[in-house]
Amino acid sequence: MTLGPDVAPGLDTDALLDDRDIRIVVCCGSGGVGKTTTAAALGVRAAERGRRAVVLTIDPARRLAQSMGIDRLDNVPRRVEDIDGANGGELHAMMLDMKRTFDETVEAHTDAARARAILENPFYQSLSAGFAGTQEYMAMEKLGQLRARDEWDLIIVDTPPSRSALDFLDAPKRLGSFLDGKFIRLLMAPAKIGGRAGMKFLNVGMSMMTGTLGKLLGGQFLQDVQTFVSAMDSMFGGFRTRADATYKLLQAPGTAFLVVATPERDALREAAYFVERLAAEQMPLAGLVLNRVHDSGASRLTAERALSAAENLEEGGIVDHTTGKAGLSDPVDPAGVSPEAVGTPLPPDGRDTPTASPDANETGHDQGETEDRSQEEPDDEDAAPASAAYSVEQLTAGLLRLHAERMQVVAREKRTRDCFTALHPEVAVTEVAALPGDVHDLTGLRAIGDRLAAGPASAPAGAA
């Protein structure tokens, strides 16, 4: 079947999760679009379809732990209970501890004495806790560690929240460039020469540089950097080698990228940029997850018609005229309009039903009791039921306006999506209907998984 220019192919997430050749799924996109929830929902669905899955999140809000019923998430994968393992699947989850991952890398690739010297070095402590790109690099490092263990047949990665969608891909090269840079090589030179010759080189050949840096950064800081570089010398090549290996792993056919976005202009602009970057880097893109999409089961009632009907009701339109449409220009005479035409207050339970007559008692007491009660109770405006203050017409007009606003949102989201689809018609798309509240447990994650699998058809009528 040939698709039109504004129709994107559908993304089959179940086929993606069931494909045993797919070992890594990377959820990426701009911040605040639902990457963490998407990754968690995919993990739950994959496990219950028979995969041994682990979800790696970098979200510091710890929402993933709460939704999966885990007390805490840390650098160690923890098994998620209450997963239906009838198909042989299981799920583990973990949250990246950036510094601990860096420490583990140092401990694993050097001897104990040198590792202790590195870990205690003030410059290393600053670097491992907050150097630009360290979090993204350590996410890549942890991904490589998980893949090497071969304990799971599916790893789902929730990429770090960052200002740029490119940070996750650029971090290994950026950190590698820093470690291989001229500044680092200059600082390594004295240590490589060693002994008095090294100190002579440092004092003579680098006197101007170290003097300037000493004034700017402080002599102790510069010494800490030199000590760190000397201790890390044997590891620099390893950082670059592992970064290159993980980068190639992301390019391999067993990896699939999912770009997550909301149907908003900025989010889809970032998604389009990421799609183009993935293509340039020859990384396999599975498709786009369009999250928090709004829909309506009453879409045949357009926003324009709903607003027109609301204005008609609010301004005393045709429903208030005994002469029907012919009386649109007639003045409204309250004395000449029956109570039924003006509008009957809603009963306390909020249902839009006519008020019972004195002989048709549906409330458990007769009219006399009602009158006695009204005489005994004070006429307090705050104590009156809220529904009694509005007529049926007023409430209906309010609902019509809400529906009009909803339809305007639906139309705006569709235009935004169509712009993305026109730019990238080859990208498969699945839509996830917006939920009325936050996802906070496995039931909610399963609901998201159902919507991920079903795509646009899964959007329930009137989902908020």
Automatic annotation (TrEMBL):
<dbReference type="InterPro" id="IPR027417">
    <property type="entry name" value="P-loop_NTPase"/>
</dbReference>
<dbReference type="InterPro" id="IPR016300">
    <property type="entry name" value="ATPase_ArsA/GET3"/>
</dbReference>
<dbReference type="InterPro" id="IPR025723">
    <property type="entry name" value="ArsA/GET3_ATPase-like"/>
</dbReference>
<dbReference type="GO" id="GO:0005524">
    <property type="term" value="F:ATP binding"/>
</dbReference>
<dbReference type="GO" id="GO:0016887">
    <property type="term" value="F:ATP hydrolysis activity"/>
</dbReference>
<feature type="region of interest" description="Disordered">
    <location>
        <begin position="314"/>
        <end position="386"/>
    </location>
</feature>
<feature type="domain" description="ArsA/GET3 Anion-transporting ATPase-like">
    <location>
        <begin position="23"/>
        <end position="295"/>
    </location>
</feature>
<feature type="compositionally biased region" description="Basic and acidic residues">
    <location>
        <begin position="362"/>
        <end position="376"/>
    </location>
</feature>
<dbReference type="Pfam" id="PF02374">
    <property type="entry name" value="ArsA_ATPase"/>
</dbReference>
<protein>
    <submittedName>
        <fullName>Anion-transporting ATPase</fullName>
    </submittedName>
</protein>
